[in-house]
Amino acid sequence: MRVILASDHGGVNLRQEVAGLLTELNVEFEDIGCDCEGSVDYPDYAIPAAERVANGEFDKAILICGTGIGMSISANKVKGIRAALVHDLFTAKVTREHNDSNVLCMGERVIGPGLAVEIARTWVQTEFEAGRHEKRVNKISAYENE
Ligand SMILES: O=C(CO)[C@H](O)[C@H](O)COP(=O)(O)O
Questions:
Q1: Which residues are catalytic?
Q2: Which of 3.40.1080.10, 3.30.420.10, 3.40.1400.10, 3.40.140.10 is the CATH number of 2-145?
Q3: CA of residue 7 to ligand 1 center, whole Å
Q4: Helices (H), 25-88
């Protein structure tokens, strides 16, 4: 699995924690910043990262901002992206099993780093269940392709 990791200035600290987790899990990843001195704009990170998942260069992305909301709105504009905004362990698991989400978004200003790292661990390690969920995900893709 190859993961692309990004944040705006509101997610720098949590991004470093997630990078540590991916290293611990031996997951190959590329961290595209931000290298923030001041403030940056989350779409400038979310959209390029999501495009690199959509084009197959990476399997998944983990995107962090202050709330995770801007990252998720931006990433979900890219065709083929199913970005999930997650702040609890239950939906971290279920969004992989049911939605086959390929982008995880979290907010550094919403939850603490301990929970966030466990959410990322769960999300990275959980497989899509397919079955009844596959036709639902396919309906999203069909709409995108209309
Ligand atoms: O959460 C975010 C987007 O959803 C951003 O990180 C947040 O809006 C940045 O705010 P500020 O410029 O006040 O640091």
A1: 65, 98
A2: 3.40.1400.10
A3: 11
A4: 43-54, 69-75
